[in-house]
Fold this protein.
Amino acid sequence: MGPFDPSKQGFQTLNEVHPNQPYQSYHTESTNSYNNYDSNYQEPYVLNPPSEKPKRRCCCCCCRSRASKIGCCTAVLLILLGIGIAAFFCWPRGMPKVKFEQASFPNTSQAESQMMKWALSDPPPTNFKDLTLSVDTDLHLLVSNPNLIDIKMKNITVVGKYKVDGQNVKIGEGALKHSVSFKAKGSTPFSLPFTLSYNPTEPGSTSALISLFEKCGFMDPSSEGSIEISYEATLNVALISWTGIKPTISNNIHIDCPISPHNVPADVLPSLRELLTKIANSYQAI
């Protein structure tokens, strides 16, 4: 490569300055560079704002502050504790036991009057279809409640039946006049109103009536004794009444005769015994 000659005037070409170096057209490279600009052009990078973080789903107050978490857990524990205590006291320990004490008859004069009117009718009756007979009765019961809470009865309905000739015949029914509560872990006495009645349309009612007259000594004084009645009671318990569940209990009880021949006037009793015996024999002969 030759040195630069300052004695020469004008411009010196690259070949003159560097005779051994091939000429390169920088203009061409520059032109090519600009021609390639479009092909290498890239869209400017757009910086998007940061997206919002997804909201956390909270259960109760568990994603809030520490104090709220403690309060939430305390509330849950108290609720569970309350449910546990309620379940402990309300969980049934057993069915209340019912013990029959006795039966009383507040007013038998109406039934005795009905019988006298029927027996003294003219002409004398030949059957029991015209006999209307009903006796108000109070069943005195003692209920033992083994549970830890009082049990309130909204109502108790009872149906009484008398067994004769292998058939259970309905002879009465009753229900509470007001609600009653049986105290926890104790015994509660109460009275259940009940009505003994004769219904001629009830199947087997005539046989039941004749048997009751015999048991009460109207036909034979030596046969006078107590009457065995079976009952079935349906309990409407306030605590579970919303479920529609109504437990039932049943038992057999013995009661005294509601009507005694000793209350019949002495001058009427012989003819009454004769009439009852005649009707009973004619019925049994059928």
Remarks:
- Residues 66-90 form the longest helix (25 residues).
- Helices lie at 14-17, 26-35, 66-90, 109-119, 205-215, 269-284.
